[in-house]
Amino acid sequence: MSSGQGSRPVEGSVLFTNGDTRYEFIQDLGTGRHGELLLVVRPRTPAGAQAQVLLKCLALPALASSSEKYQRTRARLEEEVRLARYLRHPGIARVHGLFEMGHGLCVAVESVEGLSLNTLLAIAQTRGRYFSDAFVLYVAAQVAEALAYAHARTDEAGIPLGIVNRDINPDRIRLEPGGGVKLTDFGVAFSRLAGRLNTTLPRPQGEVMYAAPEALLGAVVDARADLFSLGLTLLEFSTGRHLYDPADLRIEELEARLSKEEREQVLAASVASMVTELPPSAEDAIWCAMSYRSEDVERAAAGLSVPLRDILHTLLRRNPAERFATAAELEAVLRTALARFGAYGGEEAVREVQLALVESGERLAELELPGGEGGISLPLGINLGGPDAIPTRDATPEPRPDVARFVKRNPDEVTTQPSSE
Where is each Protein kinase domain found (predicted)? Predict the structure, then answer.
C-alpha cells in the first residue's frame, strides 16, 4: 500500500495476503473524513474470486508504532472490529477484520452496493420531485430495525453494551439493488465494550450537521441521539430542508429565541467546539439545535402526510425524554404508518428509484456518482411504454446512456461472500 504520497496501485495488483487469501486492488475511492484511504479490493482464495470488500486504510509514518497517536489509532480500529462481532444483522454492513500491511493499518468491511440517501436526494432534486412518503417510511423502518438490534445488544454475560451509532446521516444509509436497506458504518460508535478506548473530550463523533442537540452541547448521549439524527436525515430526504440550516434566519434572530441560560450553554459549547477542532459548521449547528421550535419542524415538514409529520415531530424533540423511547418503538410506529399505503417493500422502493432515474433524463449527467455507489438499473428488456411498465412522463424503449452510470459494470458476475471471522 502506498503511504498516501506515492503512486496508487494498479488494478488487479495484490495489496497484501492473509493466509491463502490475496487482496487485489480494484478502485481508489479517495480519502475519508478521518484521513483514511478508501480502497475497493477483491479477495481471491483458492476457490476463486470473492465478493468485493472496502478497505479503510490509515497510512502511518515510519516508527509510528512508538507514538501515542499510533497506539490510540490502533486501539480505535481494534475496538471497531471487536464491536462488529456483536453486529451481525442484514441491515448493518459487516466488518471482516483488521490487517497490518506495508505502511499502515486497514479495516476490511463489506462493500455495500447501492445508492446512499444523499445520492437519492440529489436524484430527486434533479428530477424536481421527492420520493414518496411510503418510500421514506419503508427506508426509515428498515433503519429503525437495524438500530433496535444494535441498541439492544449484550455481551456474552448478558450485560447491555449500550451501543450508540453516533453517525446516522444520509451518506451512511444505502438502498441496495435488491431493495434492502443497510447502515454502512459503526466506526465511531459508542459502547460499553470491555477494554474500549475512552473518549478524551466530549464532542460529536460523526457529522455535526446530523448530531443531536445533547451531543452538540457535549452531554452524555444514549440511543435516543441516533433517533434524533435519523429524524434530521428523514426530514432532509423528504423535503430538502434541514433544521440546522435556517436560510432565512440570522444568528442574532436565533439568539433572541434563547434564554440567558441557553445562551450560556451555546457559548460554552461553541468554545468547546474550537478546542476539539470541530468543523466551522459546528457553531451554526449548535445555535440552531438550541433555538429551533416545534413550528420550525412543522414548517419544514409541510406537504408530508400526517403520519410522517407526526413521526418527525416526535423524533426531533430537543429533550431526549420526549422522543421515542427506543428504536423498536419507532419501528413499530413506522410499520403501522407504512401499512396505510398498502403493500410496499424493497421491490417497490427499487422501482421508485428506477422511475426517478428515467424521469431525471439527461439532467443526470450533471450529477457525479460517488465512488463505491451504483448497481441499481432498469430491468433488462423492460418496455417503459408498455401497459405493465413503470409510469413515466418520458418513456423510452431502453435505459438512457446517462442512466448506465448507475448500472453494475458486470451484472452477470456471481461471487461468493467473503468468509466471516
Answer: 23-338
pLDDT digits (tens, 9 = 90+) for 35-91: 778 889 998 999 988 888 998 887 766 545 556 766 777 778 888 899 999 999 999
pTM: 0.84
- What is the fold, at CATH topology level, of the domain defined by 115-339? Transferase(Phosphotransferase); domain 1 (1.10.510)
> What would be the CATH architecture of the domain defined by 14-110?
2-Layer Sandwich (3.30)
> Rounded to an integer, what distance in angstroms lies between the CA atom of residue 413 and that of residue 141?
31
For residue 316, give every residue at least 6 positions away whose Cβ sits within 8 Å of its Cβ, in sequence order, or none: 228, 231, 232, 235, 243, 297
CA distances to 119, 230, 319, 340, 399 from 173, in Å: 10, 10, 25, 24, 26
Supply 116's cell numbers.
446512499
Distance CA 63, CA 106 (A): 17
String of DSSP letters for 275-327: HTT--THHHHHHHHHHH--HHHHHHHTTTS-HHHHHHHHHHT-SSGGGS-S-H
